Here is the input.
Amino acid sequence: MSVTSIRLYNYCLVLWLLLSLSFFVKAESDNSTWQKPTPIFKQEYDWLRLSSDEWLKGDIVSMYDEELEFDSDELDLQQIDWDDVAELRSKNWQSIRMIDGTIAEGYLVVKDGQLSLVKFGETKHFELANLLSIASSGKNERDLWDGYADIGINLRGGNTVQLDYTFAVGAQRRSASSRFKIDYTANYSKYKDQETDEKIVTANSDRLTSTYDWFFSQKVYLRAMDFELYSDEFMNIERRIRYGIAMGYHLIDTSQTTWDVNAGPSYQTTTFIEVQDGEKKKENSPGLVLGTDFTYEITSDIDYDASYSIQFVDESSGDYIHHLQTGLEIELASDFDLDVTFYADRTEKPKADADGKIPEQNDFRLVVSLGYDF
Here is the structure.
């Protein structure tokens, strides 16, 4: 190779090194000035930015008990700890309730630790730390509601022919200042006697409950309505109706754990299926109801719930009436859950039937069911 060729080769090598160095320096310079893109806020969505800097678009359902329910356009209904919310923008008017009882509405913006409502071109600012709840202002009634349906079925054939099912359905309406709930549970079981072909029912009960709570502070609420309709063939109860009111208090209210207690007077009317001679078929009694509700988020996909109540009524109406419902809710996919629920009921003084047979005081059952949230 000639001297000229060697020099030309060296010149090309130096030029290549200079160009590479220039490209590397430019890339480093561009990286240092890179700015993250700002999302385009389309008006047909509510927008949520998490503390991880991820954005979700969808619909604000509600915020209460330090938990935001957000119906994501891609991820469906999400329950998000309020501490994980970095920014929130609404497409429609939202209603907010503050700790001091103030209720206001408008387009909602939560950003940089500040809360603002925009209404008719005017912006009002509120202390984010004093926020109690968020709900739709009512322009779209559907946004105020959510619900669930659970079904657990056990079918057996062959040597034993048996059907067991537990069905539960409920709905809830939440606004910035109130909460209305209604729940219905049916439990039924029967089997077929292989020798006589007789179908024998072994469980048949229904329970309908409804409550209306009004929140007037961060810790205290008024249960303005507490209603229960109950029937149980094997407890000799054709119909038991209870009306009541109560005061409630939040013992614990964090993003992971909530624990409420409530107490108040009630009035109960019980109609029995059968009674002995000389006994009244219908009993009325004033009473007192004590209750508690506890929830704990074990993981992001598993929740533990427990609800217990006791009624103090006249001895002829049952004396002490206990009801416990507790279990796990395991998120499977989308809006579907696997629910494992334990029910326990106890009546201290059950009413004997026409033959003098006294029902068992205790009734227990464990139910595994598939649930759907809507």
